[in-house]
Write a structure and sequence with these properties.
- Strands 3, 5, 6, 7, 8, 19 and 20 form a 7-stranded mixed β-sheet that branches.
- It contains 13 helices and 20 strands.
- The relative contact order is 0.14.
- It is an alpha/beta fold.
- 25% of the residues lie in helices and 24% in strands.
Length: 420
Amino acid sequence: MPILEDDDILRCVRALVFDLSLVKYVLAKAVGPKARRLHRGPGTCFELRDVPEPKRPHDDWVTLEPRLTGMCGSDLGAIFFKMSPAMSAVSLGAGDAAVFGHEILADVVEVGPGAKSTVKEGDRVVVDPVLACDVRHETPCARCAIGEYATCERVGTARPKGVMLGACVAYPGGFSERMVAHRSQLFRVPDSLPDDVAVLAEPLAVTVHAVMRHPPKKGERVLVLGGGMIAFGTLWALRALHPDAEVTLFTVEDYQLGTARSLGAADAWSPKEGSLLSQAAKATGSKLLKPILGRGFLAGGFDRVYDCVGSHASIDDALRITRGGGTIVMVGAAGVLPPLDMTFLWNKELKFEGTVFYGNENYKKEKRRTFDVVLDLLSDSHDGLAELVTHRFPLEDYARAIDVNLDRREHKSVKAVFKI
């Protein structure tokens, strides 16, 4: 019998795997999201497994050991089958399995020869998870060629299939003891930033991108809808990039009001003080118009609304409280929604803008990756951000991590992370 060398022995690591089985999908959809035990745990589509340790596919890739990885609303949306099936064409289809986790703070443990000019072993890095043309070693598509790699045209046609690390069969995400990434995806974290701030770089990049692409104009009345990480990140981005803007936040949870004010909101509302429509009418000096049937809407309203929820209710609110000629910026990842009354979109000539991920921004008179901008802004000030990491779990406690995210009021949670 031949003697096996160490490199021939299959090494495994622990990881949280989403395995999209049609049988499990049908069963879980039939019982609904309230039966959580059918959505996470052994025998479901989402469970802790031993998986083969990933190998670098090219010499310009790097091996990482995640320190902290945040749980995102999109992770929960997939686990509970709330995401649009449209994305299965470019991400995960029936029979596909992927290690989740794209909000990643990691240590560099091995560097391929082609990545040594980018990072070194021992570096602490955050990861841009998008699988763009350069990551795939493809000639840049039309979008990547102009720096808009978040809308890469090859995500559904080139191999490996997947939009990003954390939703890709070939390369694991950050809910794992080890992962790999291309050199272009890595950004060194300054020593001055604590882990609990650095792990927020990815969601903050989402919000910085949204604000930089759709900034408030001088004198505009701005409203942020939501009380989760993306809403608070949008507040932080507005404060960092447009400190003169007066911003109001509306959330359904009273415990989030103090956090909103500490992150720069001039005012923060909840339903405790009345409906959003009534509070918005008073604050903007607008008349609340009431039709013979259905909800009312404002004759005026806010000039700019950042919807950081992406639900039927939040979009309906945004349409009704944005003034004529105003702008609604979708920072939340809306999917398939019940019917909406779109009258106000044309009746008020509203601008309805979508945002996704990150890109290359015009920052300090030069083009910079969004992650570079975020780390620069964090180096200037990160007051109040570490407190957004409210819960930390080992991978084994993933069921509790999910419950904390779903039962936010009970646990007063904002961002739950896995400490790996």
